[in-house]
Amino acid sequence: MLAWVLEHAGMSPGFLIGGIPQNFAVSARLGDTPFFVVEADEYDSAFFDKRSKFVHYRPRTAILNNLEFDHADIFPDLPAIERQFHHLVRTIPSEGLVIHPTTEPALSRVIEMGCWTPVQTTGEGGQWQARLLSEDGSRFEVLFEGQLQGCVEWDMTGQHNVANALATLAAARHVGVVPSLGVQALSAFKSVKRRMEKVAEVRGITIYDDFAHHPTAIATTLDGLRKKIGDAPIIAVIEPRSNSMKLGAHRDGLPESVSQADQVVWYAPPNLGWDLAATVAGGCVPSTVCDSLEAIIARVHSQARPGTHIVIMSNGGFGGLHGKLAEALK
């Protein structure tokens, strides 16, 4: 999102993104300007360097989006990740900028550990705020220090994308892009492949591909879709594929994460180290646990009707389920 805003402003940034942005059609480019945008996380650098990758990047402008426990194969607990984030904050120069939402307690704790760089905040009570004009987040006004900067109208949905937009505008302003120009760019933003990407529409049934593999990401994605489509039925198909999921680090949050769906089909791979069926049995949404793609397709085929929205969530290829399901629904 930030790379696109800088591109729209004529700054031709280099970038490295964990997906393929539809505005660029490539996930990375070097560029030949002073600007480079990196999508980074706290995963370790290498087997011989267990520090988070981002401590090596030395950014001048840093957006800290959110911070929850993840990567259970690397970190023992949330405070261990917070320490890595503080290492990152300490690398940002005094003329730089740290941007974070007001709604993330873990990030607030990181800043309280010590920050010698200017900070701007987004969200309720922050310097950057959004005034929703549509409940699904597809239209909203942007305010900076109480002053209206413009109105974003885009194809994106979800409160998480509105929050991302505010952080993007703050970072772009720090490197010279006036917010009104940033708002124009956001209105032309086309997201990243595998981020609620519509991959098929068959007999009035819409299939989406999404990279969500954490309870918070699952919940915000489904909430955004629900607010966009109203009462239309949603079937979520979820593969717990990440290392943290396989270890069961997020299992307690899974039943509540799908509350906006009408039905959920869970895939239980053979190497899952915990009882998925028992975990989701007490949830408020009807759930089915399958151990094969064929069983998933059969279940979804029996339940989907014209007007149904199917969201397939995995951080992998899911065995080509998207195409196989679309073919079966014809």
What is the name of the CATH architecture of the largest domain? Answer: 3-Layer(aba) Sandwich
Return the average pLDDT rounded to an integer. Answer: 91
CATH topology name of the largest domain, in short, is: UDP-N-acetylmuramoyl-L-alanine:D-glutamate ligase
Largest sheet: 6 strands, mixed
CATH homologous superfamily of the largest domain?
Answer: Mur-like, catalytic domain
Strand numbers in spatial order across the main sheet = 12-13-17-14-15-16
- Shape type: globular
Residues in helices, as a percent range: 25-40%
**Name of the top-level CATH class of the largest domain:** Alpha Beta
| Cα-to-Cα separation, first versus last residue | 35 Å
User: Residue ranges: pLDDT <50 for 5 or more in a row?
Assistant: none
Number of H- or I-type helical stretches: 11
Strand element count: 17
Q: Structural class, judged by helices and strands?
A: alpha/beta
User: How many individual domains?
Assistant: 2
